Amino acid sequence: MIFIREYVPDPGSAGETRFSTPTRYAGPMPSYAFRCRSCGDTFEVNRPMAQSSDPAVCPHGHDDTVKLLTTFATVSRGGGGTPAPSPAPTPSGGGCCGGGCCA
Question: Cα–Cα distances in Å, from 19 out to 4, 15, 23, 45, 59?
Fold first, then answer.
């Protein structure tokens, strides 16, 4: 767990600063997509992973929602690399069944 302290103006001294009370830093949280079965609205909720399976209420107040499966992908530009070539297929003989019984 990370705690954040920052300099804040000290109200009792002219121009001096002091440390603030440490506050818990939650950091970026995962986003979970939901769909409301009542109105069909799709929405996202940011919450800690520990609460990922908790139910969500849609923005219109309906509580009949279902969590959607979402995916994530990245595309790299530059970086100087090209994808590694895939290995050549292994010869398997021939014929309609891959060479197991045909000659």
Answer: 10, 14, 11, 33, 38
Cβ partners under 8 Å of residue 57, min gap 6: 63, 65
- Cβ atoms of 61 and 54 within 8 Å: the answer is no
| Cβ–Cβ under 8 Å, residues 25 and 2 | yes
pLDDT digits 0-9 by tens, 57-70: 999 999 999 999 98
Residue 61: name the closest of 39, 80, 79 by CA. Answer: 39
Tokens of 23: 């506050």
Domains of the chain, residue spans: 2-67
DSSP 3-state of 27: coil
Could you report the per-residue pLDDT of 11-42, keeping only the tens digit for each? 555 555 455 555 565 578 889 999 999 999 99
Cα separation of 17 and 93, whole Å?
Answer: 80
